[in-house]
Write a structure and sequence with these properties.
The protein has about 300 residues and is of the alpha/beta class. The protein contains 12 helices and 10 strands. The radius of gyration is 19 Å and the shape is globular. The structure holds the ligand O=c1ccn([C@@H]2O[C@H](COP(=O)(O)O)[C@@H](O)[C@H]2O)c(=O)[nH]1.
């Protein structure tokens, strides 16, 4: 069994999240959020004998993509077991060591007492030390207050999600005539006392992206749904970015997860055909992760044509 240890525990600085993000976007000329969703069923066979396969996988993905990454977005669903949590901690520290902010996609919220525990993910000392998190507005302001109170952290409120069922509730028309997602955007704007609130709006709903950009021009968006979900990358850029006072770049994130991290499968590197210790392993591994890097670079360039 091999081990991948991660000694670098550099954490992000204390500047406001969207300022740090603006600096990162400028440094790499990219608004790409690389989603780290290491589905254990898709980890290549050449990594399955490592101590923590998800961490081994993420480390290689970060090595291959960090020059194109404005941030990394691990989804908590892929880490909710003891080994997963260890893999997540190593991944966060490693991303920070490359100066890339980490946005935990956890869609949290609860009564205040519980929300305070959830929000500790944003703490450096007794939490995960992530830079930003996604939250669910369904339980109202008090359920989000502990997150909002982390003034230096980013808090992305689910507004109009990218999944087909996003319309079931979010498109419902209120008595005022506005759809629920527009009310959520207005509330998020109201809750933005510390300038740390953003919205999650899917690239699969470009018309809603456009409307929301007009109603809350100052809120940065996290736009998932390009890549595997087939969303509109151009609309994601055109309507997903917000001007950041004092910065030359417009701020926002366009996320792709499977389309980047599993790009190596399309390159013929599923890892299924060659044993973990096989002679072809180094070549296969290099080709697999090179494909991820190329996919991130392609998406960066495509998005940059519309910035
Ligand atoms: O509306 C939403 C909110 C979150 N997500 C998350 O983003 C990634 C997308 O993954 P892909 O592989 O690029 O489809 C994933 O973690 C989702 O849970 C979303 O897709 N839509």
């Amino acid at each position: 069994m091999t081990t991948d240890s991660n000694a670098d525990t550099t954490t992000a600085g204390s500047a406001a999240f969207f300022d740090r993000l603006a600096d990162r976007i400028a440094a790499v000329d990219s608004v790409v959020s690389v989603g780290l969703d290491p589905d254990p069923n898709r980890i290549p066979a050449f990594l399955t004998d490592t101590d923590l396969p998800r961490w081994a996988f993420n480390r290689r993905i970060i090595d291959a993509t960090h020059e194109h990454a404005a941030c990394y977005k691990p989804n908590a669903a892929f880490y909710e077991d003891p080994d997963g949590w260890r893999a997540l901690r190593e991944t966060i520290a490693y991303a920070h060591g490359k100066d890339v902010p980490v946005l935990l996609d956890a869609k949290r919220a609860d009564i205040g007492n519980t929300a305070r525990r959830y929000a500790s993910a944003l703490d450096d000392t007794d939490g995960l030390g992530v830079d930003a998190i996604t939250v669910n507005p369904y339980m109202g302001r008090d359920s989000l207050q502990p997150f909002l109170d982390h003034a230096d952290a980013g808090v992305f409120v689910l507004c109009r999600t990218s999944n087909p069922g996003g319309s079931d509730l979010q498109d419902l028309e209120l008595a005022s005539g506005e759809p629920v997602y527009e009310r959520i955007a207005a509330l998020a704007d109201l809750w933005n006392d510390h300038g740390n609130v953003g919205l999650v709006v899917g690239a699969t709903v470009p018309a809603e992206l456009e409307t929301l950009r007009e109603s809350v021009p100052d809120l940065p968006f996290l736009v998932p749904g390009v890549g595997a979900q087939g969303g509109d990358a151009e609309a994601a850029v055109e309507h997903g970015l917000a001007a950041r006072p004092g910065h030359d770049v417009d701020v926002g994130l366009v996320n792709s997860s499977r389309g980047i991290i599993f790009a190596g499968e399309d390159a013929g590197g599923t890892g299924g055909g060659i044993g973990a210790g096989g002679a072809d392993r180094p070549d296969e591994e290099a080709a697999y992760f090179r494909a991820a890097g190329e996919s991130a670079k392609r998406l960066k360039r495509r998005l940059n044509r519309h910035r």
